[in-house]
Description:
By secondary structure, this protein is mainly alpha-helical. The protein contains 7 helices and 2 strands.
Amino acid sequence: MLAPPELKTVNPLGSAPVITDGELNLAESGAIVEYIIQKYGSGRAQPPESGKIDNLYFTHYAEASLMPMLVNKLIFTMIPQRAPFIIRPLLRSVFNTVSAKLLDPRLKAHAEIIESHLSKTDGFFAGGEEPTSADYMMIFCLEVWADRGGEVLGPKTKAYIDKVHSRPAYQRALQKGGEYAYAKVQSPS
């Protein structure tokens, strides 16, 4: 899971995502999203005044709080799968127990926070008529979570994922950039 050497020419850490815009190389999802909105958004993707704090919070919550939990869950699944055959049952038992005691209760709390918030906004995370940086950051986390066992995700959260997936702009992005594991181009109804 090491980055190709070429990636280190644009990001010394060799991590993705990273964008190049003229002379600028910029890594970190949140920084990239905020940069693109500021430079190319032409006033779009801005939260309403009443949603500015929610936008700030969920933009950073996605990477700082939620995604690390989801990555840990993934790693706890991968380690037993990639271990030598003879010790897989033992590692599966250990990591399932650790996950059940440490990760699952916290993920349940995260799901409840997200569901509660979406119940109040009637749409996007900042409560406006269009997605903001919070939505661009949260959707990937929620797509991954829903795809990899998001049984604890509530109906508002699942509806939110469907709403984002059905947006014409999201579908155009998939057509241009290609489908990926968590989202597919939808056929016209």
